[in-house]
Amino acid sequence: MKFLTVVGARPQFIKAAVVSRAVRSRIAASTDGSLREVLVHTGQHYDASMSQVFFDELDIPKPDHHLGVGSGSHGAQTGAMLERLESVILQEKPDIVLVYGDTNSTLAGALAAAKLHVPVAHVEAGLRSFNRRMPEELNRVMTDHLSTLLFCPTQTAIENLRAEGLPHARRAEVNVIRTGDVMFDAALFYGARADGRPLPSGFNGLHGKDFILATIHRAENTDDPVALGRLLEALEQIGERLMPVVWPVHPRTRHLMERHETLRSICSRAQHLRMVEPLGYLDMVVAERRARLVLTDSGGVQKEAFFHGKPCVTMRTETEWVELIDAGWNVIAGTEPEAIMTAVEKMLNTYLDPAKQPPLYGDGHAGEAILETLVAWAK
Ligand code: UD1
Ligand code: UDP
């Protein structure tokens, strides 16, 4: 069986690393040579710190095709990917196309394949924020409805798909499978490589001290300089009143700051908010494990806080990972500075026992479960 994997953005490299590792160990154990993965990088993320570092640290094979699409508006970026992916799919003739998550690369991969009548498998299917202003929500909904195999990380995801009529009674080929979450597999397997690793250099002076780890890149928080400015003021206040905040800055956010003097001025005045370059995966794991609390608008980082036993405050008005809220490990604070401060204080004063975490994201073998399903499907 030949399957073609489409990746392009930071979180997809991490997710694809898990399945790719399962593929390589299956190929090594078999003699018939019938399994083959073709890896396609759309080029959506291209800075070394947003792409190459993950290939190096997570042993992801060099992509068979690099489409070099780069940045652009949604239409321009997705359109360029569609055109280039179509050629690659026609050339490679895979049995199935595998896509991850909810980025423009995900949608382009799913749409290009479906239009060529190549089945699509979606890893991280069924996630919903129910906020159609999020580009990711549109990408997810469309990808799920284009897919033949829907690999769901959680029971909530299964229920979300059921509410949208998936699996479909009249489309017998569509299959919804609960596999667990490949990001949990990654946290266990690749996280072990971070054992004993020191905090990265941007964290100098914080060894043995409490700090909060922050990330911000969601469009709703970074498109408007006023909204981002309020968040930065909130982080600085939290840093001053509670403990230092360290913030690996996503290039999207950095570009907005470069364009607006008010944002640059907030950052240059900040004494308790420390900006650092985007971290590699292993450095990020170390930072998450050492942090006292995680403050984020990222999807993946919300879960990693939980995997590494840290409370999380989410700077959004909703989350797809609702089970973390129900379990008490994550709080939706919204984006108002006072509400964020209150949520952080509350979470710092709440005792959460990592030993009593519910098993929300599977058994750490989602990658193998996905591969087994793909192989069985191809027979
Ligand atoms: C994308 C995904 C988002 C995901 C995030 C992971 C979409 C619609 N969004 O958001 O779901 O959570 O990736 O990080 O697909 N840039 C660089 N260097 C890079 C990459 C980006 O400078 O290597 C800058 C460019 O100015 C670019 C901007 O960041 O315009 C945004 O990049 P883009 O890939 O369009 O969206 P993300 O915000 O990264
Ligand atoms: N991540 C990283 N370095 C950073 C910030 C995030 O390695 O500086 C990792 C993080 O550990 C997680 C993934 O990137 O595995 C999450 O990606 P991101 O927040 O960019 O996107 P989202 O999950 O919101 O789609």
Notes on the structure:
The protein has 379 residues and is an alpha/beta fold. 46% of the residues lie in helices and 14% in strands. The strands form 2 sheets. Strands 3-2-1-4-5-6-7 form a 7-stranded parallel beta sheet, with helices on both faces. Strands 10-9-8-11-12-13 form a 6-stranded parallel beta sheet, with helices on both faces. α3 crosses α4 (104-115), α9 packs parallel to α11 and α9 packs parallel to α15. The chain is globular and about 60 Å long. The chain binds uridine-diphosphate-N-acetylglucosamine (UD1) and uridine-5'-diphosphate. Uridine-5'-diphosphate binds next to α1, α12 and α13.
In short:
The protein is an alpha/beta fold and 379 residues long.
Radius of gyration equals 20 Å
Continuous helix count: 16
Number of strands: 13
Shape: globular
Q: How helical, in percent, are the residues?
A: 40-55%
Intertermini distance:
8 Å
- Unique bound compounds: uridine-diphosphate-N-acetylglucosamine, uridine-5'-diphosphate
- What strand line-up does the widest sheet have? 3-2-1-4-5-6-7
- Percent of residues in beta strands: 5-15%
Q: How are helices and strands ordered from N to C? A: EHEHEHEHEHEHEHEHHEHHEHEHEHEHH
The average pLDDT is 97
Low-confidence stretches: none
Write the layout of secondary structure elements.
Elements: E1 2-7, H1 10-29, E2 36-41, H2 52-57, E3 65-66, H3 74-92, E4 96-100, H4 104-115, E5 120-123, H5 135-146, E6 149-152, H6 155-163, E7 175-178, H7 182-189, E8 212-215, H8 219-222, H9 225-241, E9 245-248, H10 251-259, H11 261-269, E10 273-276, H12 281-290, E11 293-296, H13 299-307, E12 312-314, H14 322-326, E13 330-332, H15 337-348, H16 366-378
Parallel strand pairs: 1-2, 1-4, 2-3, 4-5, 5-6, 6-7, 8-9, 8-11, 9-10, 11-12, 12-13
Helix pairs in contact: 1-7, 1-16, 3-4, 4-5, 7-13, 9-11, 9-15, 10-11
Bound molecules: uridine-diphosphate-N-acetylglucosamine (UD1) and uridine-5'-diphosphate.
The site of uridine-diphosphate-N-acetylglucosamine has 18 residues, from α1, α5 and α10.
